Input
Amino acid sequence: MLSLEVEYLTGVCFAAQSQSSDQPDWPPQPDRVFSALVAAWGTRGEAADERAALEWLEQQPPPAIDASGMDVRRVGTSFVPPNDPSGKPEVMMDRRRRQARMFPAAIPHRPVVRFNWNVEPAAGSFEALQTLARATAYLGHSASVVRCRFLLDAVPDTELARKETTRRVYPGRLAALQHSYRTGERPLSGAAVAPPAEKILTSSARSIFSPTWIVLEDAGGRCPDLRGIAVVARRFRDALMSQYGADSSTVPEVISGHKPDGSPAERPHMAIVPLTDAGLSSYSSGRLMGLALVLPRDVDEHRRDAERDWLAGVPDAAGTIEQWQKFDRLLGQISQLNFGDLGEWSVCRTLHLSKPSLQPKRYGRAAKRWSTVTPIVLDRFPKAKTAAARDEEISEIIASSCTNIGLPAPQRVRLYKHAAVKGAPSAYPSGNAPAWTGWTLPGFLANRLLTHAVIEFAEPVEGPVMLGAGRFVGLGLCVGESS
Output
Protein backbone atom coordinates (compact mmCIF):
# COMPACT_ATOMS: atom_id res chain seq x y z
CA MET A 1 0.00 0.00 0.00
CA LEU A 2 1.22 3.50 -0.91
CA SER A 3 0.69 6.28 1.66
CA LEU A 4 1.42 9.97 1.69
CA GLU A 5 1.89 11.42 5.17
CA VAL A 6 1.43 15.16 5.64
CA GLU A 7 2.38 16.83 8.91
CA TYR A 8 1.35 20.43 9.65
CA LEU A 9 4.40 21.86 11.37
CA THR A 10 2.62 24.86 12.91
CA GLY A 11 -0.41 22.81 13.96
CA VAL A 12 -2.77 24.92 11.81
CA CYS A 13 -4.28 24.21 8.39
CA PHE A 14 -5.10 27.36 6.39
CA ALA A 15 -7.36 26.37 3.47
CA ALA A 16 -10.96 26.97 2.38
CA GLN A 17 -13.34 24.26 1.18
CA SER A 18 -13.90 26.25 -2.01
CA GLN A 19 -13.20 29.65 -3.46
CA SER A 20 -16.42 31.07 -2.03
CA SER A 21 -16.45 29.16 1.30
CA ASP A 22 -15.74 30.46 4.76
CA GLN A 23 -15.22 26.95 6.15
CA PRO A 24 -11.79 25.26 6.40
CA ASP A 25 -10.94 22.36 4.11
CA TRP A 26 -10.30 19.60 6.64
CA PRO A 27 -9.11 17.07 5.99
CA PRO A 28 -7.39 18.40 2.87
CA GLN A 29 -8.75 16.68 -0.24
CA PRO A 30 -6.65 14.70 -2.75
CA ASP A 31 -6.93 17.37 -5.46
CA ARG A 32 -5.31 19.93 -3.13
CA VAL A 33 -2.47 17.55 -2.30
CA PHE A 34 -1.92 16.71 -5.96
CA SER A 35 -1.80 20.42 -6.84
CA ALA A 36 0.91 20.95 -4.23
CA LEU A 37 2.97 18.11 -5.71
CA VAL A 38 2.53 19.60 -9.19
CA ALA A 39 3.68 23.00 -7.88
CA ALA A 40 6.82 21.35 -6.47
CA TRP A 41 7.38 19.63 -9.84
CA GLY A 42 7.15 22.97 -11.67
CA THR A 43 9.47 24.68 -9.21
CA ARG A 44 12.04 21.91 -9.59
CA GLY A 45 12.22 22.27 -13.37
CA GLU A 46 9.53 19.87 -14.64
CA ALA A 47 11.65 16.71 -14.75
CA ALA A 48 10.34 14.03 -17.14
CA ASP A 49 10.48 11.16 -14.62
CA GLU A 50 8.60 13.20 -12.02
CA ARG A 51 5.93 14.09 -14.59
CA ALA A 52 5.50 10.42 -15.41
CA ALA A 53 5.06 9.66 -11.72
CA LEU A 54 2.40 12.37 -11.37
CA GLU A 55 0.56 11.11 -14.45
CA TRP A 56 0.60 7.62 -12.92
CA LEU A 57 -0.76 8.98 -9.64
CA GLU A 58 -3.64 10.87 -11.29
CA GLN A 59 -4.78 7.58 -12.87
CA GLN A 60 -5.31 5.90 -9.49
CA PRO A 61 -8.65 5.66 -7.63
CA PRO A 62 -9.26 8.24 -4.88
CA PRO A 63 -7.18 7.51 -1.78
CA ALA A 64 -8.63 6.79 1.64
CA ILE A 65 -8.01 9.65 4.06
CA ASP A 66 -7.02 9.14 7.70
CA ALA A 67 -7.14 12.24 9.89
CA SER A 68 -8.13 13.45 13.33
CA GLY A 69 -10.95 15.79 14.24
CA MET A 70 -10.39 19.52 14.34
CA ASP A 71 -11.53 22.81 15.82
CA VAL A 72 -12.40 25.75 13.60
CA ARG A 73 -10.31 28.81 14.29
CA ARG A 74 -12.66 31.76 14.48
CA VAL A 75 -11.44 34.58 12.28
CA GLY A 76 -12.96 37.86 11.20
CA THR A 77 -12.99 39.51 7.82
CA SER A 78 -9.77 41.16 6.68
CA PHE A 79 -9.62 43.95 4.11
CA VAL A 80 -6.61 43.57 1.84
CA PRO A 81 -5.52 45.44 -1.30
CA PRO A 82 -6.02 43.54 -4.59
CA ASN A 83 -3.29 43.13 -7.17
CA ASP A 84 -2.03 46.42 -8.58
CA PRO A 85 -3.96 47.47 -11.71
CA SER A 86 -0.97 48.35 -13.87
CA GLY A 87 -1.04 51.86 -15.32
CA LYS A 88 -4.05 53.02 -13.32
CA PRO A 89 -4.20 55.64 -10.54
CA GLU A 90 -5.37 52.97 -8.09
CA VAL A 91 -1.72 51.97 -7.60
CA MET A 92 -1.23 55.13 -5.54
CA MET A 93 -1.30 54.35 -1.83
CA ASP A 94 -4.14 56.76 -1.03
CA ARG A 95 -6.33 55.36 -3.83
CA ARG A 96 -5.90 51.64 -3.35
CA ARG A 97 -9.08 49.68 -2.85
CA ARG A 98 -9.56 47.10 -0.12
CA GLN A 99 -11.35 43.83 -0.69
CA ALA A 100 -12.91 41.71 2.03
CA ARG A 101 -11.10 38.41 2.54
CA MET A 102 -11.47 35.57 5.00
CA PHE A 103 -8.77 33.06 5.83
CA PRO A 104 -10.50 29.92 7.16
CA ALA A 105 -8.31 27.77 9.36
CA ALA A 106 -8.60 24.41 11.09
CA ILE A 107 -6.71 23.37 14.21
CA PRO A 108 -6.47 19.56 13.97
CA HIS A 109 -6.41 17.54 17.16
CA ARG A 110 -3.44 15.73 15.67
CA PRO A 111 -1.61 17.64 12.89
CA VAL A 112 -1.04 14.60 10.66
CA VAL A 113 -3.02 13.38 7.65
CA ARG A 114 -2.48 10.21 5.64
CA PHE A 115 -3.64 9.47 2.10
CA ASN A 116 -3.68 5.74 1.36
CA TRP A 117 -3.75 4.13 -2.09
CA ASN A 118 -4.14 0.38 -2.33
CA VAL A 119 -1.50 0.16 -5.07
CA GLU A 120 2.21 -0.61 -5.44
CA PRO A 121 4.12 1.88 -7.61
CA ALA A 122 7.16 0.97 -9.67
CA ALA A 123 10.48 1.74 -8.03
CA GLY A 124 11.17 4.70 -10.31
CA SER A 125 7.76 6.25 -9.68
CA PHE A 126 8.09 5.91 -5.93
CA GLU A 127 11.46 7.66 -5.85
CA ALA A 128 10.19 10.49 -8.06
CA LEU A 129 7.12 10.96 -5.88
CA GLN A 130 9.26 10.94 -2.75
CA THR A 131 11.44 13.68 -4.22
CA LEU A 132 8.37 15.82 -4.93
CA ALA A 133 6.97 15.19 -1.44
CA ARG A 134 10.20 16.37 0.18
CA ALA A 135 10.11 19.52 -1.98
CA THR A 136 6.53 20.38 -0.93
CA ALA A 137 6.75 23.09 1.72
CA TYR A 138 3.11 24.07 2.19
CA LEU A 139 -0.39 22.83 1.46
CA GLY A 140 -3.19 25.28 0.66
CA HIS A 141 -2.20 28.68 2.02
CA SER A 142 1.52 29.43 2.22
CA ALA A 143 1.10 29.73 6.01
CA SER A 144 0.24 25.99 6.15
CA VAL A 145 3.82 24.80 6.44
CA VAL A 146 4.07 21.02 6.05
CA ARG A 147 6.46 18.08 5.94
CA CYS A 148 5.49 15.40 3.42
CA ARG A 149 6.76 11.90 2.77
CA PHE A 150 5.57 8.81 0.91
CA LEU A 151 5.51 5.47 2.72
CA LEU A 152 5.14 1.86 1.62
CA ASP A 153 3.09 -0.50 3.79
CA ALA A 154 3.04 1.97 6.66
CA VAL A 155 1.89 0.84 10.10
CA PRO A 156 -1.66 2.23 10.65
CA ASP A 157 -1.84 5.26 12.94
CA THR A 158 -4.44 4.39 15.60
CA GLU A 159 -4.90 8.06 16.53
CA LEU A 160 -6.35 8.84 13.11
CA ALA A 161 -9.81 7.96 11.81
CA ARG A 162 -11.17 7.40 8.31
CA LYS A 163 -12.63 10.60 6.79
CA GLU A 164 -14.84 11.24 3.79
CA THR A 165 -13.28 11.93 0.40
CA THR A 166 -15.29 14.55 -1.50
CA ARG A 167 -12.95 15.63 -4.31
CA ARG A 168 -10.60 13.51 -6.36
CA VAL A 169 -7.89 13.80 -8.97
CA TYR A 170 -8.87 12.76 -12.50
CA PRO A 171 -6.79 11.68 -15.53
CA GLY A 172 -5.58 14.88 -17.18
CA ARG A 173 -5.46 16.90 -13.96
CA LEU A 174 -1.74 17.67 -14.43
CA ALA A 175 -2.40 19.05 -17.93
CA ALA A 176 -5.36 21.07 -16.61
CA LEU A 177 -3.20 22.66 -13.90
CA GLN A 178 -0.51 23.50 -16.47
CA HIS A 179 -3.11 25.10 -18.72
CA SER A 180 -4.53 27.21 -15.88
CA TYR A 181 -1.06 28.34 -14.87
CA ARG A 182 -0.12 29.39 -18.41
CA THR A 183 -3.36 31.32 -18.95
CA GLY A 184 -3.26 32.96 -15.53
CA GLU A 185 -6.59 31.50 -14.43
CA ARG A 186 -7.54 29.96 -11.11
CA PRO A 187 -7.74 26.19 -11.65
CA LEU A 188 -11.02 24.37 -11.15
CA SER A 189 -11.43 22.08 -8.16
CA GLY A 190 -10.99 18.37 -8.59
CA ALA A 191 -13.83 16.12 -9.68
CA ALA A 192 -16.51 15.41 -7.09
CA VAL A 193 -16.58 11.97 -5.54
CA ALA A 194 -19.98 10.32 -5.77
CA PRO A 195 -21.60 9.97 -2.33
CA PRO A 196 -22.54 6.53 -0.98
CA ALA A 197 -25.68 4.94 -2.42
CA GLU A 198 -27.77 5.72 0.62
CA LYS A 199 -27.00 9.42 0.27
CA ILE A 200 -27.97 9.39 -3.39
CA LEU A 201 -31.39 7.98 -2.47
CA THR A 202 -32.05 10.82 -0.03
CA SER A 203 -30.53 13.64 -2.07
CA SER A 204 -32.70 16.66 -2.88
CA ALA A 205 -34.34 17.39 -6.22
CA ARG A 206 -32.31 19.68 -8.45
CA SER A 207 -33.26 22.48 -10.79
CA ILE A 208 -32.22 22.38 -14.43
CA PHE A 209 -29.79 25.27 -13.90
CA SER A 210 -26.13 24.85 -12.99
CA PRO A 211 -24.96 26.10 -9.57
CA THR A 212 -21.57 26.96 -11.13
CA TRP A 213 -21.90 30.51 -12.44
CA ILE A 214 -19.74 32.72 -14.65
CA VAL A 215 -19.42 35.91 -12.58
CA LEU A 216 -18.96 39.43 -13.95
CA GLU A 217 -18.20 42.16 -11.42
CA ASP A 218 -19.11 45.84 -11.47
CA ALA A 219 -15.99 47.61 -12.76
CA GLY A 220 -17.15 51.21 -12.81
CA GLY A 221 -19.30 53.54 -14.84
CA ARG A 222 -23.06 53.98 -14.42
CA CYS A 223 -24.22 50.91 -12.51
CA PRO A 224 -27.91 50.26 -13.34
CA ASP A 225 -30.67 49.94 -10.77
CA LEU A 226 -31.68 46.38 -9.90
CA ARG A 227 -35.21 47.09 -11.14
CA GLY A 228 -33.83 47.34 -14.67
CA ILE A 229 -32.15 43.92 -14.60
CA ALA A 230 -34.34 42.46 -17.36
CA VAL A 231 -33.25 45.19 -19.79
CA VAL A 232 -29.63 44.92 -18.63
CA ALA A 233 -29.68 41.15 -19.16
CA ARG A 234 -31.11 41.54 -22.67
CA ARG A 235 -28.48 44.15 -23.50
CA PHE A 236 -25.69 41.86 -22.29
CA ARG A 237 -27.10 38.89 -24.22
CA ASP A 238 -27.31 41.00 -27.38
CA ALA A 239 -23.73 42.21 -26.87
CA LEU A 240 -22.51 38.63 -26.52
CA MET A 241 -24.45 37.46 -29.58
CA SER A 242 -23.05 40.34 -31.66
CA GLN A 243 -19.54 39.02 -31.01
CA TYR A 244 -20.41 35.97 -33.14
CA GLY A 245 -20.90 38.16 -36.23
CA ALA A 246 -23.77 39.39 -38.35
CA ASP A 247 -25.17 35.92 -39.03
CA SER A 248 -27.32 35.11 -36.01
CA SER A 249 -27.60 31.47 -37.07
CA THR A 250 -23.97 30.96 -35.98
CA VAL A 251 -24.82 31.75 -32.35
CA PRO A 252 -25.19 28.53 -30.31
CA GLU A 253 -28.77 27.77 -29.32
CA VAL A 254 -27.77 27.54 -25.65
CA ILE A 255 -26.66 31.21 -25.83
CA SER A 256 -29.34 32.76 -28.02
CA GLY A 257 -32.35 30.79 -26.85
CA HIS A 258 -33.36 30.33 -30.48
CA LYS A 259 -32.87 27.67 -33.12
CA PRO A 260 -30.90 28.55 -36.31
CA ASP A 261 -34.21 29.28 -38.10
CA GLY A 262 -35.12 31.85 -35.45
CA SER A 263 -37.81 29.83 -33.70
CA PRO A 264 -37.69 29.58 -29.88
CA ALA A 265 -35.43 26.90 -28.40
CA GLU A 266 -37.20 23.92 -26.90
CA ARG A 267 -34.39 23.15 -24.46
CA PRO A 268 -33.17 25.32 -21.54
CA HIS A 269 -30.62 27.95 -22.45
CA MET A 270 -28.34 30.50 -20.79
CA ALA A 271 -29.82 32.82 -18.18
CA ILE A 272 -28.38 36.11 -16.94
CA VAL A 273 -29.08 36.96 -13.31
CA PRO A 274 -28.22 39.85 -10.99
CA LEU A 275 -25.78 39.62 -8.11
CA THR A 276 -26.80 42.01 -5.34
CA ASP A 277 -26.18 42.72 -1.68
CA ALA A 278 -29.84 41.94 -0.91
CA GLY A 279 -30.30 39.79 2.17
CA LEU A 280 -26.67 39.94 3.30
CA SER A 281 -27.04 42.29 6.27
CA SER A 282 -29.37 44.74 7.95
CA TYR A 283 -27.80 47.44 5.75
CA SER A 284 -28.51 45.70 2.43
CA SER A 285 -30.00 48.06 -0.15
CA GLY A 286 -30.42 45.84 -3.19
CA ARG A 287 -27.45 47.40 -4.97
CA LEU A 288 -26.47 45.65 -8.20
CA MET A 289 -22.89 44.38 -7.73
CA GLY A 290 -22.51 42.35 -10.90
CA LEU A 291 -24.03 39.78 -13.22
CA ALA A 292 -23.80 36.02 -13.51
CA LEU A 293 -24.21 33.80 -16.55
CA VAL A 294 -26.03 30.59 -15.69
CA LEU A 295 -25.93 27.63 -18.07
CA PRO A 296 -28.27 24.65 -17.96
CA ARG A 297 -26.93 22.01 -15.61
CA ASP A 298 -26.44 19.31 -18.24
CA VAL A 299 -24.74 21.74 -20.64
CA ASP A 300 -22.36 23.00 -17.96
CA GLU A 301 -21.42 19.45 -16.92
CA HIS A 302 -20.80 18.57 -20.58
CA ARG A 303 -18.65 21.68 -20.92
CA ARG A 304 -16.46 20.74 -17.97
CA ASP A 305 -16.13 17.14 -19.14
CA ALA A 306 -15.12 18.35 -22.60
CA GLU A 307 -12.44 20.62 -21.13
CA ARG A 308 -10.98 17.80 -19.05
CA ASP A 309 -11.03 15.38 -21.97
CA TRP A 310 -9.31 17.94 -24.19
CA LEU A 311 -6.61 18.66 -21.62
CA ALA A 312 -6.11 14.93 -21.12
CA GLY A 313 -5.64 14.42 -24.88
CA VAL A 314 -8.78 12.33 -25.40
CA PRO A 315 -9.33 11.79 -29.16
CA ASP A 316 -12.03 13.98 -30.77
CA ALA A 317 -12.28 16.19 -27.66
CA ALA A 318 -10.73 19.19 -29.46
CA GLY A 319 -13.78 19.60 -31.69
CA THR A 320 -16.11 19.58 -28.69
CA ILE A 321 -14.16 22.11 -26.66
CA GLU A 322 -13.65 24.53 -29.56
CA GLN A 323 -17.08 26.16 -29.24
CA TRP A 324 -16.55 26.78 -25.51
CA GLN A 325 -13.10 28.25 -26.06
CA LYS A 326 -14.69 30.63 -28.56
CA PHE A 327 -17.42 31.47 -26.06
CA ASP A 328 -14.85 32.33 -23.35
CA ARG A 329 -12.85 34.41 -25.83
CA LEU A 330 -15.87 36.40 -27.03
CA LEU A 331 -17.14 36.85 -23.49
CA GLY A 332 -13.81 38.39 -22.53
CA GLN A 333 -14.26 41.03 -25.24
CA ILE A 334 -17.34 42.51 -23.54
CA SER A 335 -16.23 45.16 -21.07
CA GLN A 336 -18.95 47.82 -21.35
CA LEU A 337 -22.71 47.95 -21.76
CA ASN A 338 -24.06 51.11 -23.37
CA PHE A 339 -27.42 52.43 -22.19
CA GLY A 340 -27.58 55.54 -24.36
CA ASP A 341 -28.34 58.70 -22.40
CA LEU A 342 -28.07 56.73 -19.15
CA GLY A 343 -24.35 56.15 -19.73
CA GLU A 344 -22.15 53.06 -19.80
CA TRP A 345 -21.60 50.32 -17.26
CA SER A 346 -18.28 48.47 -17.13
CA VAL A 347 -18.15 44.81 -16.09
CA CYS A 348 -15.28 42.37 -15.90
CA ARG A 349 -15.13 38.62 -15.41
CA THR A 350 -13.73 37.61 -12.05
CA LEU A 351 -12.54 34.31 -10.59
CA HIS A 352 -11.76 35.80 -7.15
CA LEU A 353 -15.14 36.04 -5.46
CA SER A 354 -14.03 38.03 -2.45
CA LYS A 355 -17.31 39.95 -2.07
CA PRO A 356 -20.17 38.08 -0.41
CA SER A 357 -22.59 39.58 -2.97
CA LEU A 358 -20.73 37.86 -5.82
CA GLN A 359 -20.85 34.37 -4.35
CA PRO A 360 -23.45 32.09 -5.95
CA LYS A 361 -23.53 29.50 -3.17
CA ARG A 362 -26.66 30.87 -1.47
CA TYR A 363 -28.54 30.54 -4.75
CA GLY A 364 -27.35 26.98 -5.42
CA ARG A 365 -27.68 25.43 -1.96
CA ALA A 366 -30.28 22.85 -0.99
CA ALA A 367 -33.14 24.33 1.02
CA LYS A 368 -36.81 23.80 1.81
CA ARG A 369 -37.77 27.48 1.79
CA TRP A 370 -36.97 29.88 -1.05
CA SER A 371 -37.66 33.63 -1.16
CA THR A 372 -37.61 35.84 -4.24
CA VAL A 373 -34.90 38.48 -4.61
CA THR A 374 -36.40 39.68 -7.90
CA PRO A 375 -40.15 39.28 -8.43
CA ILE A 376 -41.63 36.45 -10.47
CA VAL A 377 -43.17 37.35 -13.82
CA LEU A 378 -46.17 35.04 -14.13
CA ASP A 379 -46.14 32.64 -17.08
CA ARG A 380 -49.77 33.52 -17.83
CA PHE A 381 -52.47 35.91 -16.70
CA PRO A 382 -54.75 34.74 -13.87
CA LYS A 383 -58.44 34.57 -14.83
CA ALA A 384 -60.07 34.33 -11.40
CA LYS A 385 -62.43 37.13 -10.39
CA THR A 386 -62.22 37.23 -6.58
CA ALA A 387 -59.05 38.11 -4.68
CA ALA A 388 -58.89 34.77 -2.85
CA ALA A 389 -59.44 32.73 -6.00
CA ARG A 390 -56.91 34.90 -7.82
CA ASP A 391 -54.22 34.28 -5.19
CA GLU A 392 -54.92 30.57 -5.36
CA GLU A 393 -54.57 30.60 -9.15
CA ILE A 394 -51.31 32.58 -8.96
CA SER A 395 -49.95 30.02 -6.48
CA GLU A 396 -50.82 27.27 -8.97
CA ILE A 397 -49.05 29.18 -11.76
CA ILE A 398 -45.92 29.47 -9.61
CA ALA A 399 -46.14 25.76 -8.74
CA SER A 400 -46.16 25.00 -12.48
CA SER A 401 -43.11 27.26 -12.87
CA CYS A 402 -41.31 25.09 -10.30
CA THR A 403 -42.04 21.89 -12.24
CA ASN A 404 -40.90 23.62 -15.44
CA ILE A 405 -37.36 23.81 -14.04
CA GLY A 406 -37.25 20.23 -12.76
CA LEU A 407 -38.45 20.75 -9.20
CA PRO A 408 -41.43 19.13 -7.46
CA ALA A 409 -44.57 21.14 -6.84
CA PRO A 410 -44.13 23.20 -3.66
CA GLN A 411 -46.01 22.43 -0.50
CA ARG A 412 -46.93 26.07 0.04
CA VAL A 413 -46.68 29.37 -1.85
CA ARG A 414 -47.17 32.70 -0.10
CA LEU A 415 -47.56 35.85 -2.20
CA TYR A 416 -46.37 39.33 -1.26
CA LYS A 417 -45.95 42.78 -2.73
CA HIS A 418 -42.75 43.27 -0.73
CA ALA A 419 -39.79 40.90 -0.72
CA ALA A 420 -38.94 38.77 2.30
CA VAL A 421 -35.26 39.48 1.49
CA LYS A 422 -33.79 42.62 3.05
CA GLY A 423 -33.02 45.28 0.44
CA ALA A 424 -34.86 43.70 -2.50
CA PRO A 425 -37.26 46.18 -4.17
CA SER A 426 -41.03 45.63 -4.03
CA ALA A 427 -42.81 43.89 -6.89
CA TYR A 428 -44.64 47.07 -7.88
CA PRO A 429 -44.70 50.68 -6.64
CA SER A 430 -47.30 52.29 -4.45
CA GLY A 431 -50.23 54.01 -6.12
CA ASN A 432 -48.82 57.54 -5.90
CA ALA A 433 -45.21 56.64 -6.62
CA PRO A 434 -43.63 57.75 -9.92
CA ALA A 435 -43.53 55.20 -12.71
CA TRP A 436 -39.73 54.93 -12.64
CA THR A 437 -39.88 53.25 -9.22
CA GLY A 438 -41.33 50.13 -10.83
CA TRP A 439 -39.53 47.32 -12.61
CA THR A 440 -38.50 48.03 -16.20
CA LEU A 441 -39.54 45.17 -18.47
CA PRO A 442 -38.57 44.53 -22.11
CA GLY A 443 -41.33 44.25 -24.69
CA PHE A 444 -41.90 40.52 -24.48
CA LEU A 445 -42.65 40.85 -20.74
CA ALA A 446 -44.55 44.13 -20.88
CA ASN A 447 -47.82 44.30 -18.94
CA ARG A 448 -47.17 40.97 -17.18
CA LEU A 449 -48.07 40.55 -13.52
CA LEU A 450 -45.18 40.56 -11.01
CA THR A 451 -45.21 39.20 -7.48
CA HIS A 452 -42.79 38.34 -4.71
CA ALA A 453 -43.21 34.95 -3.06
CA VAL A 454 -41.95 32.64 -0.35
CA ILE A 455 -42.01 29.07 -1.61
CA GLU A 456 -41.81 26.05 0.67
CA PHE A 457 -41.12 22.47 -0.45
CA ALA A 458 -41.81 19.28 1.48
CA GLU A 459 -38.13 18.29 1.16
CA PRO A 460 -34.99 20.30 0.39
CA VAL A 461 -34.47 21.10 -3.28
CA GLU A 462 -31.18 22.11 -4.81
CA GLY A 463 -31.02 25.45 -6.64
CA PRO A 464 -30.59 27.65 -8.48
CA VAL A 465 -34.32 28.46 -8.38
CA MET A 466 -35.31 30.90 -11.16
CA LEU A 467 -39.01 31.01 -11.90
CA GLY A 468 -41.51 32.49 -14.31
CA ALA A 469 -41.48 34.06 -17.75
CA GLY A 470 -38.53 36.30 -16.86
CA ARG A 471 -36.24 33.61 -15.46
CA PHE A 472 -33.72 33.97 -18.31
CA VAL A 473 -33.34 37.73 -17.79
CA GLY A 474 -32.85 37.88 -14.03
CA LEU A 475 -36.43 37.92 -12.76
CA GLY A 476 -37.85 35.28 -10.44
CA LEU A 477 -34.43 34.68 -8.84
CA CYS A 478 -34.79 33.07 -5.41
CA VAL A 479 -32.43 32.63 -2.48
CA GLY A 480 -32.56 29.55 -0.26
CA GLU A 481 -32.69 29.74 3.50
CA SER A 482 -29.82 27.84 5.10
CA SER A 483 -30.90 25.04 7.41
